[in-house]
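Lecture notes, unit on protein representations.

Consider one protein chain, 295 amino acids long.
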Amino acid sequence: MRRCDLWGFPFDGAATLGWPGARYAPAKVRAALSWMKMRLEEGRIFSTEEDRILDVGADLLRDRGDVDVVPHDLVTSLDLCSAAVSDSVRSGSVPIVVGGDDSQLFATVRGFHDAVEGSVALIHFDAHLDLLDESREQGRYSQSSGMRRCLELERLSPERSMQVAVRNFNFPSSDEVAKESGLGRMTAAEFHSLGTHDAVAKIATRIRGADHVVFSFDIDAVDPAFAPGAGAHEPGGLTSRQALDAVRMLAPRCSGFAVAEVNPMTDVGDVTSTLAAYLVWSFAVYGAPDASPSS
């Protein structure tokens, strides 16, 4: 039975653009998760939408606590996050990281990459490309450069990776990097046009052949109408329904998950923290061997 390790990454020191406050997200997401975890009975849970009982095991989601971040030290905090992820992978668990600003993207993927052999693909749901190299305002390991740093990992496979729900405007230099590397891209508009089922099928085709797949979900992939508690607002994103269904369908194909940029300081009635908790829970539940989605 697959077991997931939940790690909090209460760090937003790299949020020099947008709004700080994501350090408070792990606690809020855990509180929302308690409502979902209580519905487990003898390792089983009922999926109302699929009208079936899912056998997921009593030890489905083990809370490993928070990464012991150093608030004034970005690089050390990222190193500690990577070490936590590596520890979970080497122990045979599936790491799930709840941030925290999206500097954690690189830390999470690096931690997974360094603990496995073979190629690693990345599914990256995000409104932004995160391909900035470095800048005076943000440095080299910022919330805007996580994907750029991931591309530098030896066995990260850009031709099997895809960025999903990107939209509006970004740096021309970032577009050049993406195209030169062979990184795939699906805009939010394309996702809407295809519909969730066909969009997921296209992502699944993209990642085929990779030895391992990590799934990172920046909450701003979701439209701010559904997720106002984010590090930045980009209109035109996914709906909460699309996000939940995509995670449900992709979870069996992935061996690691992260949710970033949930910001309780800008949230309304904890709706974004609750959505993030459902993304985490859906990934854990539907990734279980006996609970693969039926559609």
